[in-house]
Amino acid sequence: MALKERQKSILEAIIQEYIDTAHPVASRELVRGSRFGLSSATIRNEMLELDEMGYLEQPHTSAGRIPTDKGFRFYVDEISAVRTTDGKKNSGGAARFVPLRADKIDEFLHDATKLMAELSHSFAVLGIPARHNFEKCGFSAIMQEPEFTDEAFAREFAELADEFEDVFRGLLDDCREGELPRVFIGSENPVHSARRCGVVVSRMLNQVDQSGFIALIGPKRMDYRKNISLIGEFKQYAGKFAK
After folding, report:
1. Is the pLDDT of residue 62 over 70?
2. Mean pLDDT, the chain, as a whole number?
3. 3-state secondary structure (DSSP) of residue 144
4. Residues 232, 198: contact at Cβ < 8 Å?
5. What distance in Å separates the CA atoms of residue 92 and residue 140, rounded to the nearest whole number?
6. Selection from 210, 197, 234 nearest residue 94 by Cα
7. Which of 49, 70, 130, 185 has a C-alpha 20 to 30 A away from that of 167?
8. Is residue 168 predicted with pLDDT exceeding 70?
9. Sequence-separated (6 or more) residues with CB below 8 Å from residue 123
10. Tens digit of pLDDT for each residue in 39-57?
11. pLDDT for 73-114, tens place per residue?
12. Nearest to 117 by CA among 237, 241, 234, 239
């Protein structure tokens, strides 16, 4: 069943609020923002229907709702559709990467990974598999996110961070330069240690060959819109130095 425009707007608002706060979202919070001009009862009814359609779930009795993997997937696909149809580019966004030195690939990867982790508030991995050259950054910072109070999740994420380039190698082989970043949400991830995570990964051109990749990894609540845009900006900058 196709979503109504009002349901799309409500779903997007709930997802954005959840990304920002990490808390389940109740109808009264959407009413308080006066973004829809709808009553709390109307919004509750729409949220119930979104729940029944599998886009939202209620984690606790009497709590608000959070997006399911299906809800996040709809959100990400809507972002991709907008980017494809309106031809938006990240013009000017690549300027934030100008301080990176591109004359030495090892130094470039190290500094770029650190910057991407800081900008995205995610765990960043950059690498050139053909050279067995990988850089990782952002682990200690992302461990401060609320999800990591769950010890099981923290262990799973640490396992993923340690072995990302190995467990995702097949997916990296499928990524093609020029395509939009691939996004894996929760249960879409091919390895168990990533089933509660969000992963945004893309090929990137580099000074040596075309086998490089960049990935941003975080809780499923990661800001996909921001991270997809950041990767696009970075690839735009890094591509200037590719042979």
Report:
1. no
2. 84
3. coil
4. no
5. 30
6. 234
7. 70
8. yes
9. 117, 136, 137, 138, 139, 142, 157, 161, 216, 217, 218
10. 888 999 999 999 999 999 9
11. 999 998 766 554 444 444 455 667 767 776 677 888 889 999
12. 234
The amino acid sitting at 75 is Y
Burial of 218 (0-12, 13-18, 19+ CB in 10 A): buried
Distance, in Å, from the CA atom of 111 to the CA atom of 101, rounded to the nearest integer, reads 8
Q: Which amino acid would we find at residue 158?
A: A
Residue 238 to residue 227: CA distance in whole angstroms: 16
Give me the pLDDT at residue 70, please. 96
Contact in structure between 212 and 219 (CB atoms under 8 Å) = no
Give the whole-angstrom CA distance, residue 126 versus residue 133.
8
Q: Which of 233, 146, 157, 154 is nearest to 198 (CA)?
A: 157
Specify the DSSP element, H or E, that contains 99: none
Strand-pair partners of 213 = 127, 203
Q: Where are the domains of the chain?
A: 5-67, 96-241
CATH code of the region 5-67: 1.10.10.10
Locate 233 and state its tokens: 């900006």
Is the four-CA dihedral 184, 236, 113, 102 of positive or negative sign? Answer: positive
Question: Long-range contacts made by residues 145-154, C-beta under 8 angstroms, separation at least 24?
Answer: 145/22, 145/218, 145/219, 145/221, 146/22, 147/22, 147/196, 147/219, 147/221, 148/219, 153/196, 153/219
Whole-angstrom Cα distance, residue 97 to residue 87?
Answer: 22
CATH topology of domain 96-241: Beta-Lactamase (3.30.450)
Which neighbouring-strand residues pair with 184? 199
